[in-house]
Every structure is written in C-alpha cells, then in structure tokens.
Amino acid sequence: MRLVSRALFAELEISALRQTTCLVLDENFCATPKIISRYFASHAKI
Length: 46
Description:
2 helices, mainly alpha, flat
C-alpha cells in the first residue's frame, strides 16, 4: 500500500507541475493534464 500511495502522490506532483506550466501555455493544451489531475484527486480520497 505504501508503494502505491507513493506512486499516486508522485503522479499528483507531476500533474501539479503540469498545471503550473499550463498557466503560461494555452488552455487547450492543458485540458488533458487537468482531467488527469481531477482523476487522481477523486481517487486519492478513497
């Protein structure tokens, strides 16, 4: 379980970095990272 949670938080960190990058880039380019981050955020609650 610890390895899984570590991998999950690593993905969350990556998506967070993508979102900060998206502040500079086009919103259309950012659609996928936002969806991914929402997916991980919803499953992180479980």
